[in-house]
Amino acid sequence: MFVIDALMRLIDQLQGAVFENAVQPLLYQIGLMDWSEELFDACGFALFGALEIMLAYLLFRPLELWRPVESWQDRRAVRTDVVYTLVRRIGIVPAIIFLLLTPIGATIDGYLRFKGYIPPKLEEFLPVLLAWPFVTFLLYVVLLDLAEYWRHRLQHRVFWWWALHSLHHDQRQMTLWSDDRNHVLDDVLASIWTGTIALLIGVAPAEFPLVLIAFRLIESLSHTNARLGLGRIGNSLIVGPQYHRLHHSIEHADPPFDRSRGCNFAVIFPIWDVIFRTRRRDDAYPATGVASLTGPAIRAGYLRHQLEGFRRLGAELGRLAGRRSGFAAAFPQE
Amino acid sequence: MIAAYLSNIILRSTLVLVIGVLLCSVPSGRTWAIGAVILNSDDDSLSVIDTASYRETSRTYIGRSPHHLMPTPDGKTLILAMAAGNELVFIDRATGNVRERLPASDPYQIGFSPDGKWFVATSLRLDRVDIYDGSNYQLKYRLPAPSMPSHMGFSPDSRSVYISLQGTGQLIAIDLASGKPLWTVPVGRQPAGVFVRPSGTILVANMGSDHIAEVSPQDGSILQRIRTGRGAHNFLLSPDGKTLYVSNRVAGTISLLDPATLAVTGTFVAPGGPDDMAISANGQELWVTGRWRASVNVIDRSTGAVKTTIPVGRSPHGIFVY
C-alpha cells in the first residue's frame, strides 16, 4: 500500500510540475486558460501512458527475448507499431479525437439534459455498490470489456469496418507494441462507441488509475511475441499471448470473412468468448497476419500505413456502391 | 527447458503483480473526523484533515468528479456537487454521514441566494445553468449559458445571480424569479471567481489575465480593474470582513485586498495552483487547495508563511473548514 501511495504521489507531483512550469504559462500567454483543467488531465494521461509503456516493455520484452514465437531480421514493421503505441498512449491521437468529438458529445448530452434525460450510474440500479467503489469500478471494467468484445465482433463482421480493422491484423510481426496499431478513424469509432455507453451507464469511478494500468498491461501482454499459454486457469481469467495469437492467426482473419472462422475476440476477459461461443481451444502458435494482404504497405511507416487505411476504406465503400472490387483485391501484390 | 521454467516464473510474477495491484487498491473503510473537508476532483474522493495535527485522517470515495461544496443555509448539512456523477450529495455535518443523494445534471459550481430561496448550479461542460427552489431542490429553470458557465455571486437582494462565462470572457446576470438573462457583458479573458460586495457591485477574477474587474450591477459596465496577479481565480472574504483574498493560479500567490477600498495590501506565496480557500475556525489560518500538486497549503494569516503543506488526493478543488 505504501509503495502504491508513493508511486501515485510521484506521478501527481510530476504531472503538477510539468503542468505548472511548462503548460500553464503557455496557456496563459495564448489566452486559453479555460482549457487548463483539460490540459492538466492530459498531462496525467501522458504520464500514465508513459508508465504503461515502460512497464509493458520491462515486463514483456524479456519474455519476447527468452521465448519468442517468431524471430525476424528486419524489424521495421515492429518500429511502426512502436510509433503507434507512442502517439496513442502518450495522448497525441486521443487529444485530436477529444478536440473533434467533445463539442459533438457535449451538444448531444446537453440536448438530452434539456429533455430531462440524465445518464444513470450502475449505483442507481444497485445501491449497494455505493459502499463498494472498487467493486463498482471492476463492474464498469467488466461491462466496458463486454462492449469492447462486441465492438471487436463488429470490426470483423461489418465489411467497411474490417477495412479499417484489417490494419491492426495485417501485422505479421506481432509484438507487445501491436495493441495500438489501429487506424485513427477506427479510434474515432471506438470513442463514439464508449461515449454512447457512457450515456447509458455513466462513467467509471476515477479512483483507481493504477488498476487501469494493470488492465492496459493485459492488452499489451496479449499481443506479446512469446510462447506463453496461461494454462487452464489463467486462460479463463485473462487474455494471454497464446489465446490472442489464435485470434490473429493468418488463417482466421482472411477475407471473405467466413464468420464461423473468427475466434477469441475477447480483449481482457475470455469469458465473453465462452458465453458467445467464439472460444477456440488450441495449443497452436500460428503465424499472424491477413493472408491476402501482402506487399510493402503492411510494412510501411505510420503515415503510409494510415493512408493505406483510407485507401482500403475507400475501396471497400466503392465495392459496396457496386463500382469496384473490395480492398483486398485492389491491394498491391508483392 | 530452462527457458520454459524461467518464462513460467515471469508469467506468474506478472500475474501476482497484477493481482497485487488490484488488491492493494481496495480502499480502506469509511472514517470521518470533524476537521477540514477537501474534494479531490480527479480521483472522486473526499479527504478529511484533522485541523489540529494537519494530517489526512481519511480519504473516501464519494462520487464522480466532486468539485465544489458548501453548507446549506441552516448550516446543518454540506452539499457536494458531483459533476460527472450527476448528483448532489448531502452530508450531515454533525456525523459526517451521507444523508441523501439527489439526481442533478452535471453540477459544477453551486450557490444559495442570500435569502436561501434559490439554489443555483452551473454546468461548465454543458453550457447550462440550473435554477432550483432552495427549499426543496425542485428544478425551476434550466437555461443555456454559452460558454463554460463557472463561478457565481448573488445580488444582496437575492433577485439576481451573476455567473462568469469562462469560454466567452463574459459575465451574465440572470433574474432569478423569471429565469431570464438580464444582461451579458464582456469582462476580460477567462473570468472565473465572482464576488458581490455589500454595495452590490460585482468583482470578477479574470483567470486569463492578472487582474480583477469591478462591474456595475445595473448594466454590467466595468467600473475599474485592479491588478492582483497572473491567473486571478477566486475570492474569499475573511469572517471578520477585514480582508478580501484573491487566489492567483498562474502566479502561485494570494493577494490581500482591503474590502472597502479594494487596495492591494499584501501578497502571500501559495504554490501549486491555488484555487479555493477557507479560514480555520480560530481565524488564524488560510487554507488553500493546491490544484496541480495534490495538496493543501495552510498559511498563517498574520505572517503569510506557509505553515504546512498537506498531501491529499488528485486535483483537490473545493474546501470546507469547520
Could you walk me through the main structural features you see in this protein, from its secondary elements to its overall organization?
- The complex is a heterodimer of chains A (about 325) and B (about 325).
- With about 325 residues, chain A is mainly alpha-helical.
- In chain A, helix 7 runs antiparallel to helix 13.
- Chain A is globular.
- Chain A is built from 13 helices and no strands.
- Chain B is mainly β and about 325 residues long.
- Chain B is globular.
- The relative contact order of chain B is 0.11.
- The chains are: A mainly alpha (about 325), B mainly beta (about 325).
- Chains A and B meet through helix 1, helix 2, helix 4 and helix 9 of A and helix 1 of B.
Key words describing this protein structure:
heterodimer, A: 334 residues, mainly alpha, 13 helices, 62% helix, globular, B: 322 residues, mainly beta, four-stranded antiparallel β-sheet, 51% strand
Report the total helices of chain A. Answer: 13
How is the main sheet of chain A built?
none
* Strand content bin of chain A: under 5%
Radius of gyration of chain A: 21 Å
Helix-strand makeup class of chain B: mainly beta
Mean pLDDT of chain A: 91
Side-by-side strand order of the widest sheet of chain B: 3-2-1-28
How many beta-strand segments of chain B?
28
Order of helices and strands of chain B: HEEEEEEEEEEEEEEEEEEEEEEEEEEEE
Shape of chain B: globular
Beta-strand percentage range of chain B? over 45%
Number of strands of chain A: 0
Structural class of chain A: mainly alpha
